[in-house]
Amino acid sequence: MNAMNWLVVYPEALLLLAACTVALLDLFVTDEKRRPTFWLTQLSLGLVAAMHWVYFDGGATVYGMQRMLVSDPMGHLLAFFATLAVMITVAYAQPYIANRDMLKGEFFTLSMFVLLGIGIMVSANNFLVVYLGLELMSLSLYALVALRRDHGVSTEAAMKYFVLGALASGFLLYGLSMMYGATKSLDINEVFAAISTGRINPTVLTFGVVFVVAGLAFKLGVVPFHMWVPDVYQGAPTAVTLLIGGAPKLAAFAITVRLLVEGMLGLAVDWQQMMVVLSIASLVIGNLAAIAQTNLKRMLAYSTISQMGFMLLAMTAGVVNNNTLSAGNAYSSAMFYVVSYVLTTLGTFGLIMFLSRAGFESEEISDLAGLSKRAPWLAGVMTVFMFSLAGVPPMVGFYAKLAVLQALITTNLPAYIWLAVIAVMLSLVGAFYYLRVVKVMYFDEPAKDAGLPVQSSGISALLALNGAAVLVFGLLPGGLMDMCKTAILRALAT
Predict the structure, then answer these.
(1) What is the pLDDT of residues 321-332, one digit of tens each?
(2) Are 72 and 490 in contact (CB under 8 A)?
(3) Residue 184 carries which DSSP code?
(4) Are 266 and 195 in contact (CB under 8 A)?
(5) 17: Cβ–Cβ under 8 A, 6 or more apart, which residues?
(6) Residue 335 contacts residue 354 (beta carbons within 8 Å)
(7) Cys staple from 194: which of 35, 69, 148, 183, with CB 3.0 to 4.6 Å?
(8) pLDDT per position as a tens digit, 434-478
């Protein structure tokens, strides 16, 4: 049993040890560019990613730590993608934070603690473990947003994020406490079994689900719990914005599946209705508000709201007419969507950081004017990312949207078909502001003082690979979709 306990937490134990080692060794680093710290961080994350991939490929489901943690393919696949996302984020961020006096050991250490929180969340099989991972991730992100202590906008964004995050954590914790009071258990599997008996007061369960969904909605950044997203995305340093908008979305999806699907599937009729309202409201408000934005980071924040709303549509189609025949297809489509969104987001914010330079934040849409004349390859890569977010074929974003729509339509119910129609119409509205960025890059004249930063061959290659991945996964999505289906079906089976 002890061996099994450690088997479940090996990746997180390695990550914790690596984070502490990086924090200590950085005290002795004299290189201004922090190259030893950077490479040690990347090496550590690479080892963690390899461990998650080996565990995923093994396909086994193992419980440990008194069944508070679970090692299963879904958790390891999401943790693998989250680790890759943090590795890419740190790589994109290094030149950016170096120009803003932020290149300190704290950035690398806190980024690893964010990933540690994500790792705990995706492997949680207990309400308290979910909350522990969530708070570890959130507190690390609050500190990262405020890393530029002399920057008023960043400090304000950190305060807003902290206050609203504490409120959302309270919602989630209150909902989980109600579920515990009703089911007499904190174990997710036992909660599922207790709900399945049908002997628990449905009013208490419904109230618990309401608060749990509210807490999850905040972490996903969907309407009406989206107030923090535009301000934090715009106010935080772009490197931290990418850290918030990337890997944590995978963690939010993971705990949504753990809590609502694995723990409360018997209450799907209640939480699916809430998801429908959240998703449609997010698509409407996110897309319409994004049209009015001139700041690129703020526009992408509202884009995130609409993208997460689109992903939630798939979560509404898991239980239809009280059967779960479409659950695997629906939840794997949602998982594919959130992975493809994170992949595209990494490149988008990475390119914004690449175009920034000391004393200049390339975060206004007008800053991209004439980019096709100044750097044609950069304009081409950004076009790939914008097309993917808009759902234009053959990018991965198109297939992700198609998978969600297919999950809705195959239910053969008029209500879900109407949801698909509404989603398509609102996506057409959203295409306007993505294509506006492309128009500015190719048809607007650049400002007289517009320039480009000193080219970094490493970041250039990473951007090119990121853009190629968005295109290749769009042309050949089968492998990634099969992995998502395998992970979800294994999770549902246990």
Answers:
(1) 878 788 889 999
(2) yes
(3) S
(4) yes
(5) none
(6) no
(7) 183
(8) 999 999 988 888 766 556 655 566 888 899 999 999 999 999 998
Query: Are the beta carbons of 135 and 169 closer than 8 angstroms?
Result: yes
Spatial distance between the Cα atoms of 246 and 56, rounded to a whole number of angstroms: 21
- Which residue in this structure is represented by tokens 């297809």? 329
d(C-alpha 120, C-alpha 130), whole Å: 7
Query: Which residue type sits at 464?
Result: A
Rounded Cα distance between 60 and 445, Å, is 56
Looking up tokens 């090996």 gives 10
Q: What is the DSSP string of 352-390?
A: HHHH-BTTB---BGGGGTTHHHH-HHHHHHHHHHHHHHH
* Backbone phi, psi, residue 308, to 5°: -70, -35
pLDDT at site 1: 47
Both structure tokens of 170: 């309270």
Torsion of CA 222, 227, 230, 233, to 10 degrees: -90
Query: Which amino acid would we find at residue 466?
Result: N
For residues 348 and 67, what is the distance between their CA atoms, to the nearest angstrom?
39
Name, in order, each residue with C-beta under 8 angstroms of 326's C-beta and a sequence gap of 6 or more.
Answer: 317, 318, 320, 407, 410, 411
**Assigned token pair, 466:** 């990121």
**Can you tell me which residue has the tokens 């059967």?**
323
pLDDT tens profile 148-205:
777 778 888 888 888 888 888 899 999 999 999 888 889 998 988 888 887 887 888 8
Can you say whether the dihedral through the CA atoms of 377, 380, 384, 390 is positive or negative?
positive
What is 39-83 written as a DSSP string? HHHHHHHHHHHHHHHHHHHH---EEETTTTEEE-HHHHHHHHHHH
Q: Greatest CA span in the chain, whole angstroms?
A: 72
Tell me the Ramachandran region of residue 320: left when phi exceeds 0, alpha when psi lies from -120 to 50, beta otherwise: beta
User: Bridge partners of 297?
Assistant: none
Q: Which amino acid is at 328?
A: G
Q: What are phi and psi of 357, to 5 degrees?
A: -150, 175
Helices (H), 197-295: 202-220, 228-235, 238-245, 247-256, 268-291
Chain position carrying tokens 């599922």? 192
Q: What are the phi and psi torsion angles at 320 (to 5°)?
A: -125, 125
Q: Are 239 and 196 in contact (CB under 8 A)?
A: no
